Amino acid sequence: MIDASTRLICLIGDPVEHSISPLIHNAAFRxxxxxxxxxxFRVKKEALNEAVRGxxxxxxxxxxxxxxxxxxxxxxxxxxxxxxxxxxxxxxxVNHKGRLKGYNTDAxxxxxxxxxSGFEVRGSVVTILGAGGAGRAVAYGMLKRGASAxxxxxxxxxxxxxxxxxLRQLFSRRIEALPFNLESLREAISHSKVxxxxxPVGMYPNIDEIPIPPSLIRKDLIVMDVVYNPLxxxxxxxxxxxxxxxxxxxxxxxxQAALAFKLWTGxxxxxxxxxxxxxxxxxxxxxxxxxx
Length: 292
Known about the structure:
alpha/beta; Rossmann fold; 2 domains; six-stranded mixed beta sheet; 12 strands
């Protein structure tokens, strides 16, 4: 029941109308009998500073940040965690007694989703498609967990090179940025154990799109897609046809949400319950976009 003591947590981004995060978090608050409510607010780029100041003034307990604000938000925070600095983006903010601290739960969320599927990252060569907010987090997470080498393939090569250079300052591994073309894809994937799509290609409503030619998928490849709507993207469908092991984006969504939940509340999150709610929401046709 909402009353004068209810604590507010929210999501800011543009768009946010189709996010299933409110469903996931509010279900978890109810299950754990916490007097919190989670709402989504559409915030335009030009209004980000004003929105952050307003949330801080209102005393919100914290908020999630989704596209297009994950990098820009860093300018308006009082403090940023070491991991979020390394990644170069923030997706979770906690209000610590009037000071806003930024975190990134995407990296650990991706790792948890992979490990739920029985995969050990350490010692593996990984190819990541995309160098945006999700790509930055996943790349950092893979290297931190012990990936032996990393290929970053991005349509804008300069952005991929910038990310690769940032990561080389943090990790003594082989890290290469390549342009998004068939030759690069073939080279990187042929040397990799894991392929992770961190682009929006294949996201609802463009469910027949695929970021790579299916012929590049091998039986011994592990294929993960951070896109969670549809549950099974065309990339994952094609991977399964070829006998490859697949990891759904819905797992990363639930795990990053659970990590944020604990940062805000200090309570151990009901991860399995959050995952079931996410699956149920998508099966009912919720979540028309991929906003967290």
